[in-house]
Specification:
about 425 residues, alpha/beta, Aminopeptidase, Rossmann fold, 2 domains, seven-stranded mixed sheet, about 25% strand, elongated, binds S-adenosylmethionine
Length: about 425
């Protein structure tokens, strides 16, 4: 169901600039439920007749997943003022591409374009979520919601007459729907693997957009400090690692942790996801001379830095080379039946070797961060890393979604298309 709001265009422009949309956390649930409950007595929005509770709604909240059926909240000045969720339209497989969306906005922030902003985001992101059609179920007497959906390209796909009884009155339900096709015109994407599908383009743009959004949030300053103290990677890459660790379904494997910069970024993402995720960091140790981050004992400094940032307990450090049979079995044992949803590869040049070692455990769609893809002097490490990545892209196993920082390749593992 949908609680909207006839929007006022004058206010909308000003207010939209200050909105931040992000994945909801379990800690947002009390305010999410408050916003929802406020609509119950109106009899306009939800078929729920009595207010609900956080406890009752926890299982429903946990059914969402950031990369398929996300649950977003919208914030203004750090305060949650609305939310939107995606859910399966119907459980049968043929409806996999169709999602039902619901949007609710705090009473005090209606008529400011909040619902419109959430819906626009849902429409824009649908293709990259694998969603080809969106539906909203709206009471026929909820004129503002119907109007807003119509403005955003939804049509009336169905009418369920007198299907609800609210305070003794029979009410109709309208099924509002719209397809979310790939865009008709698309700029060509160049470079290896950029076949340029529209959903891929959307995913690339969404990542850039996400990165921009994080620049306005406190995590940006926190990761800047982590980068300066502990990481060779670019701040943007650490932010993406944080983001993927937060949204990924599945566990996290990092190869080449060094003194912990990327590991800490991933751990903070896991912490902010509010979910339990296994975070494995493979690092054989040793010493390194570096203009900024020299160390005589990588393993010692890695553990010390994780402890200083309060994330040591969240990380399992495997102090061996990635390709050793003992390392592979330690990772398999730690993962059990679970799959990897984020792989961070920043060790030596043998990217293909490491991917092969853990390929069976990579989930389809696993987020991949692979460093050493680009360098002005095409030294041996970069040339070899890049050749490995390009081959896997050409084979359909890796889907590129962008190049970030100084030399990092970002994309997804496509197990189901991989011809290796
Ligand atoms: C470039 S550093 C990683 C930097 C780190 N990601 C950061 O945020 O600064 C590469 C690390 O990979 C480690 N390494 C090299 N070969 C490895 C392998 N086969 N398995 C695991 N780690 C490896 C090295 O010891 C080194 O600490």
């Amino acid at each position: 169901m949908t609680a909207v709001i006839s929007d006022d265009r004058r206010l909308q422009t000003a207010a939209a600039a200050g909105f931040t949309i992000r994945d909801a956390l379990e800690s947002d649930l009390p305010i999410v439920i408050d916003i929802y409950n406020a609509t119950v007595p109106t009899r306009m929005v939800t078929a729920e007749l009595e207010p609900t509770t956080v406890e009752a709604r926890l299982p429903w909240f946990r059914e969402h997943s950031s990369d398929q059926h996300p649950f977003w909240v919208v914030e203004s000045d750090g305060r949650v003022i609305g939310w939107l969720d995606f859910k399966k339209f119907l459980p049968r497989c043929a409806y996999r591409g169709t999602a039902e969306i619901s949007v609710y906005v705090d009473d005090r922030f209606r008529r400011q374009g909040v619902a419109r902003r959430l819906l626009e985001e849902a429409i824009a992101r649908a293709p990259s979520l694998g969603i080809t059609a969106l539906v909203g179920l709206i009471f026929a007497h909820n004129a503002p919601s119907l109007k807003l959906f119509e403005r955003l390209g939804f049509d009336r796909w169905g009418l369920l007459p007198r299907i609800a009884r609210l305070d003794g009155v029979e009410r109709d339900l309208i099924v509002m729907g719209r397809h979310c096709p790939a865009r008709a015109t698309r700029p060509a994407l160049h470079g290896p693997g950029f076949a340029g599908s529209d959903s891929q383009l959307n995913e690339c743009l969404n990542l850039m957009h996400t990165l921009m959004q994080y620049r306005q949030e406190p995590i940006h300053a926190q990761l800047l400090k982590i980068r300066d103290k502990y990481s060779m990677l670019h701040l943007d890459v650490l932010i993406l690692i944080y983001h993927f660790a937060k949204i990924c379904s599945g566990q996290i494997l990092e190869i080449g942790a060094f003194v912990g910069g990327a590991t800490i970024a991933a751990a903070l993402g896991v912490r902010d996801s509010g979910k339990r995720k296994t975070l494995l960091a493979i690092e054989p140790g040793g010493s390194l001379k570096h203009k900024r981050l020299s160390t005589r004992n990588i393993s010692r400094d890695l553990e010390r830095n994780l402890a200083r940032q309060g994330v040591l307990e969240m990380v399992t450090v495997i102090k061996r080379h990635s390709f050793k049979p003992e390392t592979i079995s330690a990772v398999q044992q730690a993962l059990g039946p679970d799959e990897i949803g984020l792989l961070i590869l920043d060790a030596d040049a043998a990217k293909r070797r490491d991917i092969q070692c853990y390929g069976e455990k990579l989930a389809d769609g696993c987020w991949m961060i692979i460093d050493d893809y680009y360098g002005s002097d095409l030294n041996t490490k970069i040339a070899a890393s890049r050749a490995d990545v390009d081959e896997l892209v050409a084979a359909g196993c890796l889907q590129p979604l962008g190049f970030y920082g100084w030399s990092t390749w970002v994309g997804r593992w496509r197990r189901n298309y991989c011809s290796c």
